[in-house]
């Protein structure tokens, strides 16, 4: 993380609001020449952090572009930590094009790349890498649960946790260094290492507890995967269309119609759901259908939840061997009877007691099935359980740090080697938040942002 107020680099600008016709368009400018840009376009710089109605003009010809609000944010009290300004103009295409051209004509002002504003905020010490990632997730959030998780990340939940670990680790490193410095005084050295061991054991327990979260954060961020599996003509595609409320999959009475995986994204109970329709499982000589079936079984094994659909036109229990061979997770919903509208009274009576009867045509049982799916997602994405890890990068660095801390616990090592294990663990925590040279991960983090953020 850099120093607040840093103003190195060119002055950048971008349309920060969504492109297209709108009531209002917002342009952001940041960098050392921002004051000059505001003066060139508006004639004068307004009071800091006060929205002022200004006439915006072309700095080269002086023609009026629009009348709108201008806000001036002198650094370091700004989002990026450097001088910033926002121009709020009308969102018509012609106005937006004229404003973009006017800003480009200003001296030393150039269009921003994706994530440039957030990257400058990081470089100027306004946020760490985990907060920047949380901000990107907040922009991308599609459901309420995703929004809440991203907001906690953007507010520094993981950063604060890692900083507390880093403080304890630095304390342990200081004790080990003292043991090295006073190696000629055995009592002092032994006592210092003993206290370091105590601190590291606490770190190992705490980091290990965070890592054993069953990937809840990543699942919520990327989507809870629900896969529909079963024999051909069991109604999987019809059920997917009913849950998606649109014709996402082709429905046909011909067996083997679905050959490839079909995915739709849903919002169920505020949790993002990725619902996958798969090829029906049966013996076949078709090479294409065999590949579809292989993909179906692999998808079911990787799913967070699998739903087994039975064909009501076949005797119940026809497919137990296939069900066992598929090796579905124990918590799979193993008996969904589709085409409930076609079932006779006798067939309904013969249905297994744990079966869920649904009909994509009449809507019967859909709310019951949805409630069962939501209950499963709630068990994984428990909003009351603190979740710190939301990305694979976080888990990678914390796992590496934990491995080095375990290495420190090998008492047979020389104290100098144990000190090196602590240094490596601290380096991994630093890479997680950006407290060390992380140029290799910056493009990956900030490249996800839209232009203007």
Topology of helices and strands:
Elements: E1 11-15, E2 22-30, H1 34-42, E3 52-57, E4 64-73, E5 84-91, H2 93-105, E6 109-111, H3 116-123, H4 129-140, H5 144-154, H6 157-181, H7 186-211, H8 216-222, E7 224-229, H9 236-244, E8 262-268, E9 271-277, H10 287-302, E10 305-310, H11 320-326, E11 333-337, H12 345-350, E12 356-357, H13 366-380, H14 392-408, H15 415-433, H16 439-446
Parallel strand pairs: 1-6, 7-9, 7-10, 10-11, 11-12
Antiparallel strand pairs: 1-2, 2-5, 3-4, 4-5, 8-9
Work out the oligomeric state of the chains in this entry: single chain
Distance from first to last alpha carbon: 18 Å
Low-confidence stretches: 2-6, 316-323
| Helix percentage | 40-55%
Please summarize the sheet with the most strands: 6 strands, mixed
Write down the Rg: 29 Å
Kindly name the structural category. alpha/beta
Question: What would a concise description of this structure say?
Answer:
The protein has helices at residues 34-42, 93-105, 116-123, 129-140, 144-154, 157-181, 186-211, 216-222, 236-244, 287-302, 320-326, 345-350, 366-380, 392-408, 415-433, 439-446; strands spanning 11-15, 22-30, 52-57, 64-73, 84-91, 109-111, 224-229, 262-268, 271-277, 305-310, 333-337, 356-357. With 453 residues, it is α/β, with parallel strands linked by helices.
